[in-house]
Amino acid sequence: MKKARNGFIRTLRYFCLLGVIVLGLITIVGTGGGGGGKSTGTAPEIYSAKLYNNNWVETYNFNIGGYVKFMVCATDPNKNMETLYINQYYPSNATTPYYSNLLPLPSTAETWECFYSSAPTLIQGPSGNWRVEFQIEDSKGNESNIWKVYALVN
Amino acid sequence: MQDPLFSRPINKKQIIIGLVALFIGSLVYLIDRPSDKTYLVYNIANISFYNTLPNLFGLIGNSLPAFIHVFSFILITAGLIFCNKRWYLIICLSWFLVDSAFELGQKFNTWSSSIIPNWFAGIPFLENTENYFLQGTFDLIDLAAIAFGTVIAYFVISATSKERETS
User: Would the pTM of this model clear 0.80, i.e. be above it?
Assistant: First the structure.
C-alpha cells in the first residue's frame, strides 16, 4: 500500500515538474516582447522586380500587340505572402492606375521567393512611358514596400 | 530502484521562495507596465493597476523580470526535485540556458522568427512567440540579470538545502 502511494506521489511530482517547465516557458513568451494583441508578423519586402518579353528576355521596351511577363522577388520571415498587386500607371507620373491587377500567390516554403507571371499579358497601349508598381500583401494584411519599374510602349 | 530525482521529499521552503519571487515579478507587469504591452496581462489575466497604483520598481523594473524569472523557476524546480548539488547545478544551468536562448532570440530575431511553426498562430500563448522575438528588445542588462539570478538562485538553494540536511 505504501509502495503504491509512493509511486503515485512520484508520478504526481513528475507531472508537477512538467507543469513547472511549461509554465516557465509560457511566462517567458507571454511576458516578453510587448504586443498585447495577436501577432501580426512582419510585412513582406520586395527586393527585385523585372519585366520580360514573351521569351523571358529582360526588357523595358515593348510594342503594342506584344506581350509582357514579370518576375517579383520578395522576402517574408513569416512565409505567408498571399496577394500580389500590380498597378500600371500611364503616363508614368500619373497618380491613379490605368490598369490594376491582383494575383493570388502560391504558398511558400522559404522566407524568400520569386514569383513569375503565369501567363503573358497582351500590351494594348496607349504608347508612351508607363510606370508599373508591385506590392505584396501577406495573409495578415501586412503590406510590403512598393517596387516601381518603368517601361516604354511603342 | 530508487528514483535519483525524487529521492527526498519536496523542499517547501524553496518552492515558497520561488512563488513569492514570481509574485513580485508579476507586479512589474500588473503595476508598472501598460496592460497592452504584455500578452499575459492583456489576453489572459485581463487585470492591470497601471496608472492606478504608483510605479513600484522604477528603472529596476526594466530588468527585474529577467532576474526573477530565472531565479524563481530554479527555486521551484529545485524544490520539487530536491536531490543533490549536481542536480541543482543542472537545474540552474538549464534555466539559465532557456532564458538566455530566448533573450538572444530577440537579437537574432529574423532567424528565430523563421523557425516558429505556422500552427502556433491562433494557439493561446504560442501565438505570441512571434511577437516575443520580433517586437521584443534584446538587452545585455537582461542577459546579465539572468546570469545574476542564476547565481543567486544557486546560493539560495544550496543554503536552504543545507539547512534541511542539518536540521
Answer: no
Q: How many CB pairs under 8 A join A and B?
A: 109
ipTM of the complex: 0.87
Q: Is A42 on the interface with B (CB under 8 A)?
A: yes
Which architecture does CATH list for A45-153? Sandwich (2.60)
Q: Where exactly are the structural domains of chain A?
A: 1-37, 45-153
| pLDDT tens digit sequence for B56-94 | 888 888 889 999 999 999 999 999 887 788 889 999 999
Q: Which residue of A has its CA nearest to B113?
A: A77
Question: Which of the residues A6, A12, A18, A29 would you substitute to probe the B interface, choosing the one with the greatest number of B C-beta atoms within 10 Å?
Answer: A29
Report the alpha-carbon distance of residue B29 to residue B108 in Å, rounded.
25
Among candidate residues B117, B77, B78, the one with its CA nearest the CA of residue A80: B117
